[in-house]
Amino acid sequence: MDYFLTGGTGFIGRFLVEKLLNRGGTVHVLVREQSLEKVDRLRERYGVDASRLKAVIGDLTQPNLGIEDATLESLKGNIRHFFHLAAVYDMGADEASQRAANIDGTHQAVAAAQAMNAGCFHHVSSIAAAGLFKGTFREDMFEEAEQLDHPYLQTKHDAEKVVRYECKIPFRIYRPGMVIGHSETGEMDKVDGPYYFFKMIQKIRSALPQWVPTVGIEGGRLNIVPVDFVANALDHIAHLEGEDGNCFHLVDTDPYKMGEILNIFCEAGHAPRMAMRVDSRMFGFIPPFIRQSLKNLPPVRRLTSAILDDMGIPPSVMSFVNYPTRFDARETERVLKGTNIQVPRLTDYSAVIWDYWERHLDPDLFKDRTLKGTVEGRVCVITGATSGIGLATAQKLADAGAILVIGARKPERLKEVAKSLEERGASVHAYQCDFSDMAQCDEFVKTVLDNHGHVDVLVNNAGRSIRRSLDLSFDRFHDFERTMQLNYFGSVRLIMGFAPSMLEHRRGHIVNISSIGVLTNAPRFSAYVASKSALDAFSRCAAAEWSDRHVTFTTINMPLVKTPMIAPTKIYDQVPTLSPDEAADMVAEAIIHRPKRIATRLGTFAQVLNALAPKMGEIVMNTGYRMFPDSAIASGARGARRPKVSSEQVAFAAIMRGIYW
After folding, report:
1. What is the DSSP string of 249-310?
2. Which residues of 531-560 are buried (b: 16+ CB within 10 A; e: fewer)?
3. 8 Å CB contact between 237 and 174
């Protein structure tokens, strides 16, 4: 028995080909000439040669599928079953391509099947042919389809109409539900249907422990079926006698609601479950024109677009969240009765679906998330690059192939660092600059732009820290002036200098090395924390202005790092700190992923505590303030002995790891 398939190398087609080969017949697969290797892979997969699995060169959109006359003649009278599976299944595809593949392709498939005098034309349609019908859609219903506004719904409906009204040979129609991966292996070839929400689940898992309850949506019932059920049902029904002219719903007769499906995959992905699910019908009392007006507000549209884009969810998918249609499958149940072909419960195979997606289909697997892929050949400016965090960051960027522009105060040290970076194979350009001097900042900006044209990444790292309690600062107002001059004014001067070029190129990223003290309100660091807080506030305001111009900011609330900056405070020798290399890893993360903020969990907790229970946060910080004394230098006692650190202080610092005291 000979078979002919369009879409035989596609997802459903691959599994159906296996079933047909197992019946001992010869399978002919339509394929474009440039895709012949797909048929070779199928032969290898199923252990057959070209005599069993034959490639037929053609094109879905050409007359008679673009099959040569001689080939068409050789197939005439020899094809018992013609399966038409080829179609565009991507809801995000443009209307023209969907019409060409789904409607025109079906016209040509019907014509080719008739030219071959095929025994039966098997059209694999979709439940999308029902549109957004409200209620139960039976297998004998077609014209009753409603709300076919989306191109995917309309083209699937019209393709089925071609078969119903133009096919002159016996035909059968199959309407699968949303087809997902294999129920035993999880195998899938693309992100579609419920897979669009997997990235959202993954991000929630990264942000929250599994035991934290979340709020989600209820939605309508989505009809999901695994590909192995669809292939098995197609193979079985196609070979039954007396079923020509019938339509079969290959669906789950007891589908889950959208919220239930998300929870099932949350559990499979070890993410928090939605303990409370909101049904959109709760808002039915709001007049439709008001709901539509709110959705069309520019901020709402942009926010919605940004969230969907970040999650990788096509906007059109959201219109199916409240899917209104249920599908009767009495004919399918009748013909499958007595077989072991049935739809498994999603809870029984969701784990393998999730596992396959995370290992093979997660979009992040195909993105270059390396530092090299982000900065190679890009102009990256680092201030304070001759020691500590700045030097460690410069070394990482040098190894990643960035065009390095480094600036620092001391020319001798700057020259020495530039030479060491060049020895690593980096393109290094060193410019002496005191970033607390506004005139030197302006000259630095001009020189960099004259020599390099623009800047892709600016790392504001140069900074000054002063650890001194307010009791010792009443006559030291210059402490506040010095920290503001470098930490705030110097950084803002550079941002304002490089920003016009970034905005013109519609590309630029600014990384500000801030402090965990901004989140914890660290005592003894009022001058330092105030200057960093000012830079944070400026950056938030600037980001709000430039958000749509692709110039972005990342603030790193850096915990305590063992650098020359903290060397005068000898007590820090005895408490846990990050190494400069670990701090540079945080900078690299900021450059690669461009988050709004990077902070330790302790820093984030402190910020939340200060927002919810500010007095409690104040008491904790005051306890640390009383436990740790001012340094000898801050007290003006030169040459004093190194202070002894008590076990109580070490324990407290270990619990509050990374916080300044």
Report:
1. EES-SSPEEHHHHHHHHHHHTT---EEEEE-GGGGTTS-HHHHHHHHTSHHHHHHHHHHHHH
2. bbbbbbebbeebbeebeeeebbbbbbbbbb
3. yes
Question: Of 261, 268, 81, 267, nearest to 171 (Cα)?
Answer: 81
Closest to 110 (Cα-Cα) out of 168, 32, 58, 29: 168
Position 3, amino acid:
Y
Q: Report the first-to-last Cα separation within the chain, whole angstroms.
A: 82
Q: Would you say 599 and 557 are in contact if contact means Cβ atoms under 8 Å apart?
A: yes
Q: Is 259 left (phi over 0), alpha (psi -120 to 50) or beta?
A: alpha
Query: Over 70: is that where the pLDDT of 27 sits?
Result: yes
Half-sphere exposure of 217 (CA within 13 A, CB side): 13
- Cα–Cα distance between 339 and 364 in angstroms, integer? 41
Q: Which residue has the tokens 């296996």?
A: 18
508: its two tokens? 């630029």
Q: What's the CA gap between 237 and 312, in Å, rounded?
A: 37
pTM for the model stands at 0.73
Could you tell me the two tokens for 647? Answer: 């076990």
Picking from 547, 525, 396, the residue whose alpha carbon sits closest to that of residue 461 is: 396
| CB 375, CB 401: distance < 8 Å | yes
What is the DSSP track for 406-457? EEES-HHHHHHHHHHHHTTT-EEEEEE--TT-HHHHHHHHHHHHHHHS--SE
Q: In this structure, how many other beta carbons lie within 10 angstroms of the beta carbon of residue 285?
A: 6
One-letter amino acid at 344 equals P
29-33, 248-252, 633-637: lowest mean pLDDT where? 633-637
Dihedral sign from CA coordinates of 139, 144, 150, 155: positive
Entry field: residues in the chain: 661
Tokens of 297: 């507000």
What is the spatial distance between Cα 596 and Cα 512, in angstroms, rounded to a whole number?
11
User: pLDDT per residue over 281-328, tens digit each?
Assistant: 655 556 665 656 666 667 666 666 666 676 667 777 767 778 899 999
Long-range contacts of 93-100 (CB under 8 A, 24+ apart): 93/151, 93/152, 94/151, 95/151, 95/155, 98/151, 98/152, 98/155, 99/151, 99/155, 100/61
Annotated catalytic residues are 528
**Mean residue pLDDT across the chain:** 87
Kindly give, in sequence order, each residue whose CB lies less than 8 Å from that of residue 241, ignoring residues fewer than 6 positions away: none
- DSSP H/E element including 615: helix 614-627
Q: Is 64 within 8 Å of 110 (Cβ atoms)?
A: no
Map tokens 């300044």 to a residue: 660
Residues 428, 433, 434, 438: what is their CA dihedral angle, to the nearest 10 degrees?
-120
